[in-house]
Amino acid sequence: MHEIVHVLLGHDGHQPQAIEREVREIAAQMLIPIGELEKELCWASSEGELADSLGVTVAVLRDRLNLPDARALMERAHFQEWT
Ligand SMILES: [Zn+2]
Asked: What is the C-alpha end-to-end distance of the chain, expressed in Å?
């Protein structure tokens, strides 16, 4: 998905760090719709389990959870970070 986002944005290969971050965020958003995240978040007992149930890597999940809509969702759900 990451590479597809580069192509969609017209990039020729990898980009400076700030752009790469943006690409990762877009890829994470495309891979994990907020509705899916909401559905799975209450069942998952660990970061790895949530990533598994969403069919993504933990790295992609972390990128997704840093986005404002996911942060707001976790606040509403009184979500506690996994230890
Ligand atoms: Zn890249």
From this structure: 29
Q: Ligand 1 mean position to 6 CA, how many Å?
A: 7
- Cα 31 to averaged position of ligand 1 atoms, centre (Å): 15
Domain chopping of the chain, boundaries: 2-76
Query: Cβ neighbours of residue 57 under 8 Å, at least 6 residues apart?
Result: 51
> CA 50, CA 77: separation in Å to the nearest integer?
15
The CA 21 to ligand 1 mean position distance, Å, reads: 8
Q: What does pTM read for this prediction?
A: 0.87
Question: Is a pLDDT exceeding 80 seen at residue 46?
Answer: yes
